[in-house]
Design goal:
The protein is of the alpha/beta class and 226 residues long. It has 2 domains: 118 residues, Response regulator (Rossmann fold), CATH 3.40.50; 92 residues, Arc Repressor Mutant, subunit A (Orthogonal Bundle), CATH 1.10.10.10. Helix 2 packs parallel to helix 3 and helix 6 packs across helix 7. Helix content is 41%, strand content 21%. It is built from 8 helices and 12 strands. A hairpin with a 3-residue loop joins strand 11 and strand 12. The structure holds calcium ion. Calcium ion binds next to loops.
Length: 226
């Protein structure tokens, strides 16, 4: 496939070694890869090159990945995938709600990375579904407004991914859903051993929506009771 026919990916990463690996993989898949070695140059590249996806290293010299992501979100809705060194960092950055669309833990396989990028692209290009509301007990989950109303009438707006996860559980209420099932439905990719992402997002939802009836099904995954 000719380089660039699938659009541009901006990689913000200070390791040349990783950059070369990522370049090879994406150029093989028909993307043009622009590599920026630090946050400042990365922000310029996102502004100037109109990429379809940004791959953003968390640990960068100068402005760190968290701040770069915040600054990108100030002017762009481009999907951002964070590259993190440790699983534990995912917890931290999900908690900060910096607006990243997905997270990949290093070391990652090229195959996994391409699959994640394609999944993010598919999601960002999907037509929105017809708005409707699902009621779970006294909770109301509104897909048009992407809001959740608590039994006491308080209105919450979870992050995009948290909402999609809650919607999927609510839409399948009564069913015990496995982590890999949830990953595939909500994140759009096959199981790569990163099912912890699901746990982190469930934890966030429980924290924000105190009393939301998401049950842990031991050895399986999660369920919302009908
Ligand atoms: Ca780094």
């Amino acid at each position: 496939m000719t380089i660039g026919t699938r659009g541009t990916v901006v990689l913000i990463e200070d390791s040349d070694e990783i950059a070369e690996l990522v370049r090879m993989v994406f150029e093989n898949e028909g993307f043009r890869l622009i590599h920026a070695p630090n946050g400042e140059r990365g922000l310029d590249a996102v502004r100037d090159r109109d990429p379809r996806v940004v791959l953003l290293d968390l640990g960068l010299p100068g402005i760190d990945g968290i701040e770069v992501c915040r600054r990108i979100r100030a002017f762009s809705d481009v999907p951002v995938l964070m590259l993190t060194a440790r699983d534990a960092e995912i917890d931290k950055i999900v908690g900060l709600e910096i607006g990243a669309d997905d997270y990949i833990t290093k070391p990652f396989s090229p195959r996994e990375m391409v699959a994640r990028v394609k999944a993010v692209l598919r999601r960002s290009e999907e037509a929105p579904r017809a708005p409707s509301t699902i009621e779970i007990g006294e909770w109301a989950i509104d897909s048009g407004r992407r809001e959740v109303r608590s039994p006491s009438g308080e209105v919450f707006r979870p992050t995009a991914r948290e909402f999609d996860l809650l919607w999927y559980l609510a839409d399948n209420s009564g069913l015990a859903l496995s982590r890999s099932q949830i990953l595939e439905a909500v994140w759009g990719y096959e199981y790569f051993g990163e099912t912890r992402t699901v746990d982190v997002h469930v934890r966030q939802l429980r924290k924000k929506l105190d009393g939301i009836p998401i049950e842990t099904v031991w050895g399986v995954g999660y369920r919302i009771a009908d």
